[in-house]
Design a protein that fits this description.
By secondary structure, the chain is mainly β. Helices cover 4% and strands 46% of the residues. It has a 6-stranded mixed beta sheet with strand order 1-2-8-7-6-5, with helices on one face. A 5-stranded antiparallel beta sheet has the order 3-4-23-22-21, with no helix packed on it. A hairpin with a 6-residue loop joins strand 17 and strand 18. It starts with a helix and ends with a strand.
């Protein structure tokens, strides 16, 4: 993970502090869309409840930017052991930043943030939700980055060295327009080019860039919840599920190897969490959760950290 994110971070220089321009087609001889540096404000967020047994709250922040209207709708993320964060949005953007910690190792902010449009197979920037509704993100060991999209259900595979993406295999099943491949994760135990593809209704598949996709049983979703994120790089699968209704609001469940690890709902600090990434080290495993604010003034982009005491 660390080497993959480092490769991506070195691909393009930063441009002025403004939202990236979006074009319907790439100009002849011009490079792909450039990164734009953005300032990010981070407001501390208390958990609001006692962390459950086995987890320790390691800090949380609410994210916003005075520089761009595009830092919204973040729907999946990956974080490297070097603290570099990569996320994709529902409106076809790629966001990167560096995590900042206090002297106790608790999450307190982001630095070196930047944003750019994702590109499609022609090299043009993706346009709006019809083309750019990115929901899942995976980084293979060789540096290739995979992004899953719904509406136009597909997985795009971006080369480690930059360049136009190509399509990767997806499950040959029917999916609702807004209920597609929410969960995407590298699955090294299944092969160097293997990844988990999870449909929001809970169906899960193991896919390989060199082959196809096959169903795999990882257990059922909790009643009323949808599968939204996964991490498959540890000894136990980590699966994140989300539910919402107007009375109870957002609720999430995080499962590890089929057992419930975390339940968040009011009065806890909770929002529309759709993204999850686990970072493993000799000290243990830290799990990050990121919420999609749906471009709504009534929601927040929250990034929460939990240390998993195993």
């Amino acid at each position: 993970m660390r080497s993959a994110l480092a490769v991506l971070a070195a691909l393009a220089a930063l441009s002025a502090c403004a939202a990236p321009e979006r074009h319907s087609e790439p100009a002849a001889g011009q490079p792909e869309p450039r990164w734009a540096a953005v300032r990010v404000t981070a407001t501390p967020v208390p958990l609001g409840i006692e962390a459950p047994a086995g987890l320790r709250y390691a800090g949380g922040i609410a994210l916003a930017s005075p520089d761009t209207s595009r830092l919204h709708g973040l729907s999946d993320l990956r974080i490297g052991t070097d603290g570099r964060l990569m996320a994709v949005s529902d409106d076809g953007d790629l966001f990167e930043a560096k995590l900042a910690f206090d002297t106790q190792g608790r999450l307190v902010g982001l630095t070196d943030a930047r944003l750019k449009p994702l590109t499609g197979e022609t090299g043009a920037a993706l346009q709006g939700k019809a083309e750019g509704d990115a929901e899942g993100l995976a980084v293979l060991a060789d540096g290739r980055t995979l992004v899953s999209f719904e509406r136009d259900h597909r997985v795009l595979v971006y080369p480690a060295g930059g360049g136009r993406p190509v399509r990767g295999p997806i499950p040959d099943v029917r999916m609702g327009e807004n209920e597609g491949l929410e969960a995407l994760a590298a699955w090294p135990a299944k092969g160097a080019d293997a990844y988990l593809a999870g449909v929001e209704d809970g169906r899960t598949f193991v896919c390989r860039l060199s082959g196809a996709c096959a169903p795999v049983d990882l257990g059922s979703a909790p009643g009323g919840f949808g599968l939204v994120a996964a991490d498959m790089e540890g000894p136990e699968p980590l699966l994140l599920y989300r539910a919402w209704d107007p009375v109870r609001g957002s609720r999430i469940r995080l499962k590890a190897g089929g057992r419930e690890l975390l339940a968040l709902e009011r009065p806890a600090s909770v929002d529309n969490f759709e993204a999850m990434s686990a970072v493993r080290s000799e000290a243990g495993t830290r799990v990050y959760l990121l919420s999609d604010d749906n471009f709504s003034d009534g929601q927040r982009t929250l990034l929460l950290a939990f240390d998993w005491v195993q």
